[in-house]
Amino acid sequence: MSNLPINYAKYPYLPLKLGCSFRQTTRTVLSLTSDSNARVRPTKRKDLIKMAAIYSLYIINKSGGLIFYKDYGSAGRMDTNDTLRLASLWHSMHAISQQLSPIPGCSGIELLQADTFDLNCFQSLTGTKVFVVSEPGTLHMEYLLKYVYELYTDYVLKNPFYEMEMPIRCELFDINLTQAVQKDRVALLGR
Q1: Are 130 and 70 in contact (CB under 8 A)?
Q2: How many Å apart are CA 174 and CA 141, to the nearest integer?
Q3: What letter does residue 177 receive in the DSSP assignment?
């Protein structure tokens, strides 16, 4: 099998290379439209111009369990069971996308675009996933996700009372996370 990128113009229906970055300015995204047709297409950063709000943030442990969920005022609030289902579904989709990718070393889905939301994901080397649901076209979510993971390592993993793989109950983490999200919203609106 060659290491060349797949020609998506020749195979527009091929939904395999979901989250592998193969160039610095281009990344592959899974885009869902209202007519339920899924397609994969490269997206240039300059095409993603809109700035937007964050709906919710999730942290999933390496086994797929939801350990943190924070809702930031989205219109359709989900109950606890729905958030657990969404987290486990995302974990499964992410794992399947890594295995189905024709590119060796694929890290899974990084961005899922739909008509009404974008879902951005960051997976750490330990397998912990941080993902955020935001308005369509939100820029620079990867920086926010990496910063959230830094907060997780600083305030949760270094907490002597935290037990691994358990839900996060840490006041300092909550305070700093709220500040980071608010700062990100201000930065997005100011650009």
Answers
A1: no
A2: 19
A3: H
What's the CA gap between 3 and 172, in Å, rounded?
45
Residues 6+ apart with CB under 8 A from 168: 59, 67, 68, 152, 156, 162
CA angle, 131 then 134 then 140, to 5°: 75
- Gyration radius from the chain CA atoms: 17
Q: Is 13 helix (H, G, I), strand (E, B) or coil?
A: coil
The sign of the dihedral angle between the CA atoms of 67, 165, 122, 148 is: positive
**Half-sphere exposure for 63 (CA within 13 Å, toward CB):** 6
* pTM for the full predicted model: 0.70
- Can you tell me which residue has the tokens 């943190």? 68
Which is nearest to 93 in space by CA: 150, 32, 48? 32
Give the model confidence (pLDDT) of 63-105 as tens digits: 999 999 998 876 667 888 888 998 999 999 998 988 888 888 8
Q: How far lies 184's CA from each of 80, 151, 188, 189, in Å?
A: 26, 14, 6, 9
